[in-house]
Amino acid sequence: MDLEAVAETIVTKCMRVKPGETILIIGGLNSFELLEDIVVCIAKQKAFSVLMPSSDRLQKRLLMESDTEFLKTPPRPLLEIADFIDGRIGIDILKDPRALQDVPEQRIGARRQSTRPIYDKLLKRQVRWTGMGYPTKERAEMFGIDYETFHDMFWKAVTTDYEKMYAQGERLAKVLKDAKTVRVTTDKTDLEFSVEGRPVLIDDGIISEEDVQIGDVGNNLPAGEVFCAPVEPSANGEAYFDAAFYRGQKITGIHAVFEKGKLIEVSCEENEDLFKEVIANAHGNKDIIGEFGIGINPEVTRPTGYVITDEKIIGSIHIALGENRGFGGQNESSLHWDLVMMHPTVKADERVIMEDGTFAV
Hints:
The protein is of the alpha+beta class. The protein contains 12 helices and 18 strands. The chain has helices at 3-14, 32-44, 56-65, 68-71, 76-81, 105-125, 137-143, 147-158, 162-177, 209-213, 272-280, 307-310; strands at residues 22-28, 48-54, 87-91, 128-132, 181-186, 189-194, 200-203, 218-221, 225-228, 236-246, 249-259, 262-267, 289-295, 317-322, 336-341, 345-348, 351-355, 358-359. The strands form 3 sheets. An 8-stranded antiparallel β-sheet has the order 12-11-10-6-5-16-17-18. A hairpin with a 2-residue loop joins strand 11 and strand 12 (262-267).
């Protein structure tokens, strides 16, 4: 992959970095060549960088060897950085998520809690952000997929035809913007919620001036979803998700029941205790539906377990629990956990917009 070209896309198209701006860059040593290219590209825009590289080993040591109460403390340097940066770029830090399997969830939850004041500052200042995954052999091994297949699908998704993808997203968004309710069904799912009055956004890989004006200041790479924050107390019904990965562990057969937007019951065929432990150690509105999204990236055609690509699978939907203030919601939480559903049927009011995973608009 031409990483210099990817860096240029991130800096000049996704983030649209301007002269004099300061951009925070966070990533892992495994992607340092890309981080280096991003820093240089930012300099070519006559802008400044703050680079914070890390590693699997460092992340684990900080989580395991730090005092638990200290882990809850918002890091002062990042709080100060959040006051002056104009944008942030995050490349997936971990080379192998299994490196953190032995870390108690209480410590993970404490670390998440410490970042909330930083997120609040960035949210208030409307600081632009781009978050990008990074395919590694270790991730492919963990997900049980051939690395070459994983690598090629990821980079094709990053470099897809964005105009064509946006056109599909616009058709879906137009219908959702006029709708009051959305109903999602499969043979094991029947979930309904309100989207009335909520902005419907398209993640097309570019943070435009129009996006910033409506408060949509972030994007993922790969891009490719239409999403919104459902009215928080409106979701009722049940939903079934085939699988989710968390810190290298697979959770399968997730059956979730919602009442007035809140997760009131959940059972899993595998690793149910882990699912419940994640929820228990998160903070805020962690058990409230925060997002409804539809995948529209034509290059992502199969689930792997890597959420940043799975939620972009064309013809899939995802439901997220937790934080949603960044795109029109009211949930404040240390958690934002996307759960992907394949082959759904989706109705906006009484209009079918997707049937068994195939778009009808």
